[in-house]
Amino acid sequence: MIQKFRLTLLTSMLLAASSVNATVLQETLNFTKSATDDNSYSITVDGYGIKVRPTKEDGPAEVNLTGSSVNVSVDLTLNNSISGVFASSGATLNLGGNNTKDINISVVAKSNSQTTPLRQPIGIWAYKYAEKYDQFKSLSAPKIVVTSDNLTINVESEDKDADYTAYGIIAANNTEKKDGQTLAEDERATVLINSKNTVVNVTSKTSGGGLVAMSQGVLKVNGNLEVNARNAIITRGDSIIKINESGTNQVVLNGDIKYSFDGPSSGTGVDSDVLINSKGNNSQWTGNVTTGWESETKPESAKLTVTQFKLALADGAQWNPTIIAQVDEETKGLNAIPVNNLAFNNGVINITKAQDQKVEIEKLQGTGGVVNVAATTDGTTISSAQLKADAVEGAPHFTVNAVGLTSDEITNQKEAMESFYANALDLADGSDATATLNIAEGGAAGALTAEVAKDGSMLVKEAQNTVNSSLIDIAASNYLFFRSQMNDVSARLGDLRSMPKTAGAWVRYYGGKNKYSSGNMSEKYNTVQFGGDGFINDNFYLGGTFSYTHGDGNLRNGSTDDKNFNFGIYGGWLGDSGQFVDVIIKRHRVKSDFSLYNTMGRNSGSFHNWGTSASVEAGWRLQCPDTGFYVEPQAELQFGRLDSVDYKTNKGVKVEQDSIDSFVGRAGVAVGYTFPEKKGNAYAKASVLHDWKGEVKSTFSSNGAKRTYRDDLGGTWGEFAVGGTFNPTKNISAYGQVKTSAGSPVRNPWQVSVGVRYSF
How much of the chain exceeds pLDDT 90, in percent? Predict the structure, then answer.
């Protein structure tokens, strides 16, 4: 406590001196003024945290306040102007430095009674006095320079019965032009913010401004900036405001840019040089540019004319224009006005508040960018919000997206897109601008795109609906599950010739991956299968099986969870000379749950259907004399049908999925070796397969739109496998196989199968 008092006293002495170049260095500086602790820090009787104001013509030239952190807090019940940091004519205040991490300025104003007026609270204020005040005539213009890693300004007016203006930062001159000439920049009150990150929050009931420059004031902010205020910027009187002039930082402005005419206090015109350089995906401005006035009579139009507002949107920076409620009365008014100059280089403008909203640019230059507009349609004509440019330099390209409608609502695509272009963009005659118009896909129809050349000619295309295309892929995946269940005898039962011809039970696991060659979908699956069988005599066997498959599918726009339950009966014949025939018939139950995403959000649902399959396989094992080696040619025919199914998605899209037929032929050969004493065998196998069917077809209906999508899973492919059977005991046999495939639009990159059989 004693240390704090000594610091406070020293600072008071330095700042009150008639002429001084002073530096106050401390690890942490705390400047506090409150209603309950008036003596903690006080330079004057007024409500200021830090006040640099000369008392004589040769007042303080420069004051430096620096430390690792600087905290300024003003919380007062006063009827006077209050400021966290203030510098007047003749003063230069350097607040912070290269080693200063945080500067926090908090100013809260409360009224001490209902009858006592409260004047505005201000965070940082540089003010040049009028020359009529003799004691300040010869003093230079004030300047405040803030340097730190982080600068946070919170200003609040808390009066409960009336609104009083609150400001974050002000640079203002109470001066008149000399012989009509504009003051040089070094003759103006200036605030320069060099902090790496600046946040300005201003809270008031109906008014207030974040960054303010009046009467030829100069305000420049470098580094990242965020402003939250009813008016992010207020200016008039040939002032200068430069935000992110270098274009290397992030800018977030929440509030309007107001050119404000105030008849009672100044009467000067509103025009000022304002630059907002917004760049990068994290930069955005939510607000509009306006002129407003308060005066005994409505000012002449010249006083309200703005010519120097410049906005730059680059590299994903966004502007969200708001709708200004127009006021046009004799004593006050408020109007939205055009942006004088827009540099548009891969920026984004969101004109989405209303279908009749219009944003006007006097001169647009740059490469172009994205324009999102609110839109409605009757099916043939699209009405939308509008971007209007009176002059266009260069050859910008606009990507215009309709917000609020989908392609399902369009019945005449060409006429609708022509009207969309005419309504969404109003560009200067003769411009070389081009455009891409987009309408998001609906429940059935795909996204609509129109490419517009600089002569106005247009090419309209409809893309595939991404959700419905994925639903076709899911149907195809279920078909692949279904088709893969029609397995051959060696994969299911191992090598029966090396096992006892008795009754037995078996269990098998296999897992793998299906993938489309296009890469749109891949699915990993795991299957557990078990069964039991017995030999009727030395040559014939009969059995039954049940299996469960679970698959997880990944698509570009979502995922699916698939299940296949099936049961079947099988039987076969083993000839004495190595011949064999195997037949299996199955009934399948297939179920899918899906979750897919597009511009409409999450599209989800589930469906299930039945299927039936049958397979006939034959082969002949030709043993090489006096060796354990053999060659086994094989042939197989597979038949199947996956039944049709109708279902709806959570978005109300009706899906009619046709039945899918399968007719697969396989021809192959296995080369193997039989271990002595019937201990098992090992083999390598290659097969060629062809599916003469495999067509997947679904019809999608939504909001009167209907589209049919198809996929063909037929074709020819090859399969390659190695495997074997091992009989460790008379009653136990273990078997397994590794398989891959190549060719066809669908591939099975890998499948691993292992099983165990116990013979009774």
Answer: 61
